[in-house]
Amino acid sequence: MKNICVVGVGYVGIITAACFADLGNKVVALDIDQQKINELNKGSMPIYEPGLKELIDRNVKANRISFTSSYAEGLKDAEFVFIAVGTPSGVDGEADLQYVAAAARSIADHISDGMIIINKSTVPVGTGDWVSDIIREQNPKAANFSVVSCPEFLREGSAIGDFMEPHRIVVGSLDPEAAEKVAQLHLPLRAPIVVTDLRTAEMIKYASNAFLATKISFINEIANICEDLGADVMEVSNGMGFDARIGPSFLNPGIGYGGSCFPKDVKALAYMAEKEGRHPRLLNSTMEVNNERRQMAVNQVKVLLGSEELAGKTIGLLGLSFKPNTDDMRDAPSVTIANLLLAEGAIVKAYDPIAMEEAAKLLPSVEMAESPYQLAEGCDALMVNTEWNEFRQLDLNRIREAMNSPRLYDGRNIYDPTLMKELGFAYRGVGRGYNGS
User: Which structural domain, as residue segments, surrounds residue 263?
Assistant: First the structure.
């Protein structure tokens, strides 16, 4: 059993804390937001993630995890301190490191001999060195300590499984002994461990996310061409995915990526490249293709309605969160789409199984429905924005009968075009060629 402190109880922090506790360690989750700590102590979760509450409840009962807003309390006896605070995008796309800096200064005030500080947040290349400098500047008498990079690779909606069964663990440090200790901490996960230097570890995270985002933009570009040439992108994607050099993951065409990672990380990597005098053409194109998807979805609704005018039309949004199994609305395509529709005078309604409370804060002019069937009532068109499993099993006859006109734009290709036509819908998917017209 190791003593661990996790600084930050946002998405990455709370998952990291809960999972390390479940591996038998003594974990203190620390956040300066007292309200979040109070809610956690009451058993209320700061995020929605399948299985998280059960995991935390079990480890609270076993006395393996606790929550505090005090650095003095959180860092007492801590051998490993994970920094898992937010790094939002700045004005020019750069990562905003104010929360990392604040955490580093507070750690410096309570640092103990031999402590290992681990950057879990996604941070620009060179941040590990910068954190070391901040700690030494804040506390010139700081005891012997080490800084390690151990980037997270968690997917919202499946984060616990991703933590417990990772594809790899990346550990970067200039201190081989510290790197070995962090590697040992992860040994129970029985995953390949890549040990490298600080900057390379930081770069692995950005390069990984940028590549996955590029795959999404690539298949969306192919979807556009399929639309024009009469091919079905779903069959194209399936055929490509059998090639072991390509693989099927992240080849799902749709309305583009969103969330807290891909948009922010691709921007930040492009910013780093430009700052060094590079011209990251592929990264910029990835973002350009992705940004176009949202307006393109609105344009497809116009095609379905047979009108360039949306004023007075009622459009229903099936799904709001950027992906299923999460309530995360950060850079969700639905927000942009809803605002584009509203700007053109449409009446916008929406339903999401989990995210409506969060969405309502961002979209006060959107009416939230209690069910997909209530959503469909009086709609001139529906748009699928999030591929929640429950949408795949809807009573589509009931949906059709509730609508003013049975028109559906499937932004995630969850329905079969032929079946939708048989059910009487005017249907368009993404890149489904003439079959979906």
Answer: 212-436
